[in-house]
Amino acid sequence: MLFTAVPRPPARIIPGAVHLPGFLSEEEQRKLVQQARQLARKVAGTPVAMRRPKVGKGQMDAWLLSLGWFWASNPYRMLQEVDGYPVPPIPENFQGIADAVMEQARAIDPLVGPTPRIETALVNFYPPGAGMGLHVDAEETSENAVVSLSFGQDTVFRIEGHDVLLMSGDAVVFGGPARRAKHGVLGAREGTSDLLDGRLNITMRQMDAR
To answer: What is this structure's pTM?
Structure first.
């Protein structure tokens, strides 16, 4: 019996939010994961190292590496240095990736809006089973879209009550009317990837409205 993959065409999730399955090739995925590892190694042991932030009285399951601006919690704020250590800069290739993602996303739903000027990014690592609860990205004053890339294990992306299966190489954009939408991810599904034992997510965004 011949089994074929279930089609996963690009699609609008809600107005302003678009899912682009398989946006990155396997080779592109490997290179970006390696780049993320190198970025994390460069700042290991410093105040700007990849970490599990404390949120309220608890601690996140995911490990976060801040680029461009440092996402600090308790209280939430954005910093460009921590204890005298500068936040690692945005890699040069990130803007080109965002440009390409946004071009495809606008072809599906023009409501995603203009391409963000990538000024900050989060590299999030989710161990198997780890996810992130529903939240709103509100630290930036810019209303331009958030560009999100997935690597490794499958997860379910939830935005305003709509669930989408994310697989390695997928991209998601949410901008326009969805820019401040409540969203999160369920647990990374163990055994669904040969690339990573866990899930890596890179989110790119613009900080200022100017």
So the answer is: 0.92
